Structure formats: structure tokens, C-alpha cells
Amino acid sequence: MKVCLLLAVFLPALISATPVRPCPNNAPMPQEVRVAGCSAEPCIVQIGGVVDMDLDFVAARATNAMRASLDIFLGDFRVPYELPAVQQLACNFLKIGSCPVTQGEFINYHLSTAAVAPFAGITVDLQVQLVDDNGVPLICYRSSATIVAA
Description:
The protein is mainly beta.
């Protein structure tokens, strides 16, 4: 009974959509973004933890491959960070859809990556972007995250 009550309380927070904002490049936004444990900005990201997210979108155009990027911004300053090379190959992390992507195809992209930061106690913007073969954004969004120590 207690387990059912806990699930009823916490499950919506785990699967609720996460609020996101458009990127400054005016790229299309995904239909929905879900970050585990985050239903309101800023998300809390613990150094040494894992950022686990899914995003849904409909491809505006065909592409043979997609590349993913995760950028961190402190105001207008981009903090140097790069996804591991294998995670940049977005086609390897599709739960729904496949590459090559066809125009109008529904895509669910999943990213699970280690939370690495040289500092804690600040709020940053995280920008997630998927680009096509030509480097043109298919989707892009920003959301806020507060970095906390382990």
C-alpha cells in the first residue's frame, strides 16, 4: 500500500513534460521534452549524477544522420562542454524512428549522460540540439538547471 502511494505521488514528476524555451537560433522546438525528475525549471542536476531525458519531434525534412549537442550557458557565456563522441551520433539513441529519417517521421530521441561540472551552486541554461547531415538544426531547446554538489 505504501509503495502504491509513493508511486502515485512521484510517478507524475518522473514522466511530466519539462518546460523548455526556444533557442536563440530560432530552430524548431521539440513537441515535448521529458527530463527524469524535472517538471519545473530550474531542474536540479547533481554533479556525478545522470541527466536522463527524452524528446519527441516530427522531422521537418529527411536526413541520413543526426548529430546531437549539449551546450551549457552561463548568461551569454558558453561553458566548454562536449558530449562524448558516441553520444553525438543521435541515430544510435532513437527509441522511436530510425536513420535515415524521412520527412514527417515521428522521432523519440533519448539522452542519458553524466552530469559533469567544475562548479556547483549556480543556475545555467542547457541547450540540446539535433542537426541534420548539413549541420542545419532539426530541433533545439533550452532549459534552466541548478547545479548542486554530490
